[in-house]
Amino acid sequence: MLKSMLTTAAAKANLMDGIRAASASAIMLLVGCVLHAPDFSWAAIGAFWTSLATAPQTARSQLASMLSFAVLSTLGGGLTIYAASFGFAAAALTLFAFVTVAGLARVWGEQPYQVAILAATACVVMVDHPSTGGANGMAYLGLYLLGCLFAAALSMVLWQLRPFAPEQLHNRWHEAAAQTARDALRQLRDHASLSSDGVHFALRLGIATTAAYLTVHLLQLPCGYWATMAVLLILQPSAAGTLPRSVERALGTVVGTLIAVAIGELAQTPLTIALAVFPLIGLTMALRPVGYSVFVAFLTPSFVLVADYAMPAIDYSYAVIRMENNLLGSAIAVAATIILWPLTERLKK
C-alpha cells in the first residue's frame, strides 16, 4: 500500500514547478547573503508567492497570472501598510474591503480567484509582519516587487527549456480554446448567482478574515498573521469543503512545524537557511498536486524559514506559536461557514 501511495504521489508531482519556484526564492536569499541585506527575505517571499500564483495553461496565461499577482499584491500591500499607520481599526477595514473583493473574483473561475486570494494573503502578511511596521514599511515593497518580477522572468526562461513540438502546441491550442469556451459558458451561468451565493461567500470570507485579524490584535498574539492566512486559505463556499480543508491544514501544519523545528536546529545562519529553502520550496511546489495536507506540510517550514531569514532563531516554542495561530484561523473559518448564511447552502443542496 505504501508503495502504491508513493507511486501515485510521484505520478502527480511536478518537478519543474518545484525547481522553478525553489530557484527563484533561493537565489533572492543568496543575493541577500552576498549583499548582507536580510530584507531580501521579502524578495524571496514575493518570488515564492508569484510561483504559487502561476496558471497551469499556456505560457501567456502563466505570465499574465504572475504579473497580475505582482501588481495586485504590491498595490494591495502598500495600501494596507499605509492604512495600518492610522491604527489597526483602519487596517481591518482595508483588509475587509480587499478580501471581500478577492472573494468575488471566484465567479470568474479558479485561476483569477487563486491570484486574488494570494494577493489578499500577501496583504495580510505585510500588514502584520513586524518588519513592515512604521514609516519605513513601504521600503519593503520594492524588494517584494523585485522578487515577484524575478520569479516571472526566471519562469519564462525555464519554460523555454521545454519547448513543445508543433503537434503538441497544436493540441494544447485546441485544448486551451475548448477550455476557454467552457469557462465562458460557466461564467455566464455563474454570474446569475453572483447576487446571492457569490456575494455571501465573499462577505463570509471578508468577515472571517477581519474577525481573525481583530482577534489576534485584541489578544496581542505573536505571529498572528498565521491565523488570518489560515482563514483565507481554508474557507470554502460550503461547510462540506471547509471542514476537510481545515483538518488537512491542521495535520499538515503539525508535520510542517516539526520539520521547521528540526531544520531550525541545523540552519542557524542566513546562508544555511538560504540553502535549506531550496529543497523545501522545491518539494512544496512539486508535491502541490498530491494533496493539500502534503502541500501544507512543506509550505509551513518553507515560509517560516523565508519569513524569518533576518532573525534565524526557530525553536520549539516559536514554532508552536505558529501552529496555534494556524489552528485558531482554522476554527474561525469553520465557525464562519456554520454561522454566516448556512441556510442558503442547505437550500441549494
TrEMBL record:
Pfam families: FUSC_2. One of its GO terms (cellular component) is plasma membrane. The keyword rRNA processing does not apply. Residues 212-335 form the Integral membrane bound transporter domain. It is found in: Cell membrane. Keywords: Cell membrane, Membrane, Transmembrane, Transmembrane helix. The chain crosses the membrane at residues 59-79, 86-105, 139-161, 211-235, 247-264, 294-314, 326-344. Belongs to the YccS/YhfK family. This is Integral membrane bound transporter domain-containing protein.
